[in-house]
Amino acid sequence: MMDKKEKVKEIIKIFDELYRDAQCTLDYENPLQLLISTQLAAQCTDARVNVVTKTLFKKYKDARDFANADLKELEQDIKPTGFYHNKAKNIKETCKIIVEKFGGKVPDNMEDLLTLPGVGRKTANVILGDAFGIPGIVVDTHAKRLSNRIGLVNTDDPKKIEFELMEIVPKEKWSLFCHQLVYHGRAVCKARKPECDKCAIIDYCDYGKEHLK
């Protein structure tokens, strides 16, 4: 039996061929824009978020602008992303803290990021990996689904998945591997009907091998 580290090594080789340029699919120009886009992306597609932020980031240019925003107006600005009451409140409060505690700059460490409203480990790892180049394991719905199907983990707890993947995925690959899981999840390993017959990593996937018997 191949151990999990070896399995990941082989999967990464294939993913590096298929999804060499995998990256965050949110549009952003700086850490603050990525932070806000990630908050808006909860229960919403990245494509829809990108439509909303195209206008949003012209109107609100920095953390101070968001901190001073009229809450009702901000709600309307982000309404198409859903759950807009809660998202607007979190964004405004987050930006107030960024202005007051962090000099208007998004913090670049997990501990400080987790003090921001609406920011959990998943969002923090997106910011660290994509805005600051600090490797992190992002456990979104794709990472959760694929890592369980492949047989890399056996839990639905995002924090456990994060720490278990940290043990078996090479650190320099953490951020890229999570983007590659998203790409593969969207293209092949879909939630309702995975296309195992088209899967390039079928030889390393417990679920795939079982279902293609």
Low-confidence stretches: none
How many individual helices? 12
* Rounded Rg: 18 Å
Indicate the proportion of strand residues. Answer: under 5%
CATH superfamily of the largest domain: Hypothetical protein, domain 2
CATH topology (fold) name of the largest domain: Endonuclease III, domain 1
Mean pLDDT: 97
| Portion of residues within helices | 55-70%
Derived from helix and strand composition plus strand pairing, the structural class reads mainly alpha
Distance between the termini: 18 Å
Shape, principal axes of CA atoms: elongated
* CATH architecture term of the largest domain: Orthogonal Bundle
How many domains in all? 2
**What is the tally of beta strands?**
0
Order of helices and strands: HHHHHHHHHHHH
Largest sheet: none
Top CATH class of the largest domain: Mainly Alpha
Binding site for [4Fe-4S] cluster: 189, 196, 199, 205
Keywords: 4Fe-4S, DNA damage, DNA repair, DNA-binding, Glycosidase, Hydrolase, Iron, Iron-sulfur, Lyase, Metal-binding
Protein name: Endonuclease III
EC number: 4.2.99.18
Q: What does this molecule look like?
A:
It catalyses: 2'-deoxyribonucleotide-(2'-deoxyribose 5'-phosphate)-2'-deoxyribonucleotide-DNA = a 3'-end 2'-deoxyribonucleotide-(2,3-dehydro-2,3-deoxyribose 5'-phosphate)-DNA + a 5'-end 5'-phospho-2'-deoxyribonucleoside-DNA + H(+). Pfam families: HHH, HhH-GPD. Residues 40-187 form the HhH-GPD domain. Keywords: 4Fe-4S, DNA damage, DNA repair, DNA-binding, Glycosidase, Hydrolase, Iron, Iron-sulfur, Lyase, Metal-binding. With 213 residues, the chain is mainly α. The protein folds into two domains: 4-23 and 137-211, Endonuclease Iii, domain 2, CATH 1.10.1670; 31-131, Endonuclease III, domain 1, CATH 1.10.340. 60% of the residues lie in helices and 0% in strands. The chain contains twelve helices and no strands. The chain starts with a helix and ends with a helix. The mean pLDDT is 97.
